[in-house]
Amino acid sequence: MITSTRNQRINEVRRLRRRRNRAVTGMTTVEGPFLLHEAIAGGVRVHEIFALPSDDEAGLAAENAGIGVTEVSVDVLQRIATSVTPRGPVAVVDIPKPVPVAPTDSIVLWEMSDPGNVGTVIRTAAAFGFQVIATKGSVDLWAPKVLRSGVGGHFRTELVENVAPSLDSLTGAGLVPLATAADGVDIATVDLSDPAPAAFIVGNEAHGLPSALRSKATTVSLSMPGGTESLNAAVSASIFMYLRMSQRP
Amino acid sequence: MITSTRNQRINEVRRLRRRRNRAVTGMTTVEGPFLLHEAIAGGVRVHEIFALPSDDEAGLAAENAGIGVTEVSVDVLQRIATSVTPRGPVAVVDIPKPVPVAPTDSIVLWEMSDPGNVGTVIRTAAAFGFQVIATKGSVDLWAPKVLRSGVGGHFRTELVENVAPSLDSLTGAGLVPLATAADGVDIATVDLSDPAPAAFIVGNEAHGLPSALRSKATTVSLSMPGGTESLNAAVSASIFMYLRMSQRP
Predict the structure, then answer these.
(1) pLDDT (mean) for B125-140
(2) At a CB cut-off of 8 Å and minimum separation 6, what does A111 contact?
(3) Where is B65: in which H helix or E strand?
(4) Domain C-terminal end among B65, B94, B123
(5) What is the pTM for the complete model shown?
(6) Is residue A100 part of a domain?
(7) Exposed end of chain A (fewer CB within 10 Å): N or C?
(8) Residue A124 to residue A192: CA distance in whole angstroms
(9) How confident is the model over B25-42, as pLDDT tens digits?
(10) B88 by DSSP, 3-state: which?
(11) How far is A227 from chain B (nearest CA, A)?
């Protein structure tokens, strides 16, 4: 049992909260029994599981992962967890190897920065069968906060990261890019039954999409009779995905 | 200029972060220039505006509200703001008087508890023209966190709070209740063009809807070919609202 918050291994795990250290090691942490279960079910390699002695669920997860549980004190758990009220287990897992953009329906995060929104988009993408593509400049999809709002979606759909922010990255892979913004063509008037894979592009929460991109792609919008131009970015991305999913051939 | 964090008026404002004190006084706080602008545009009475001396936007808002700005120090602003990095202004505003359930398309929050989700639902409801009905046991719609994720939606649509958690509260007002859950009728097969107002009922994030309610109302679902039964509660509520809005007669 590890009780020292200065334990070297604990310090190494704690360092995974920094994006750079996740990139260098190719590992991240997942927190709580549900996420860990999803990671194991998704075939992700689990390196270590840290849990309180009282945590019965950790043992079951460890058995499924084929490894042991390292027991830690409450202090140590708090040091490696990122949530405000950590419950454990906290597990160190491999980040899946990078994959190229596949010719399938996609949601493109164009420099999206809010971890909660990005996680929620990943969750919806997994439910509706969408690949998630994140351009360079987006938040790290494997940050613990993004994993938390992803609620397991990370382990059930393809995630492509660090894609160059250019339309060529999408069209080159056979995707039909559709920019999303408040002043485009009403999506209700667009035929979404085309067999070619669609790629809805969602911009940064504060700045939207660059005008250079919008001038080169069809821009689509959601009608808002309430007179506002305000929807949460994850909500609007999710509605676009639902609409394509329900018309997909 | 107020520089003492023990100032009596500042303590009174700080107390508004507690639900009970908001209920007793009928007031809440709105934070940041955008929300304050929306509150004023929505005709809400503004009692006081606190801002840093450097905050130029506060002066304009105060002019629109017909009152003065009370300048405060950074310490004092942090004491009355609820966000992690408060920027001000922080204003004390009236919570609108309670209204009864109106016979119009509605989203019903049935003991929903996450402030971010509830605010996001209010934001979507305002965009798509839905009344928001919250049962007793839901989070306070006028909590600062809910206002923050509402992004002004609070001031652009009707909010009905403290409704008894019973179907009669809805049917009695002429609404057609539709429970939302993962195992109901696929919403894509439901005719949503009926002129009678629809009321989509969204349950608690952890416990869903009570089975007693579900046995008495039609239950509708979103198809999820990804094989998961997992969508964020605000996302699924928003998709249901979009679908009704786009078929509304």
Answers:
(1) 96
(2) A135, A137, A138, A165, A203, A204, A207
(3) helix B56-65
(4) B94
(5) 0.95
(6) no
(7) C
(8) 18
(9) 999 999 999 999 999 999
(10) coil
(11) 7
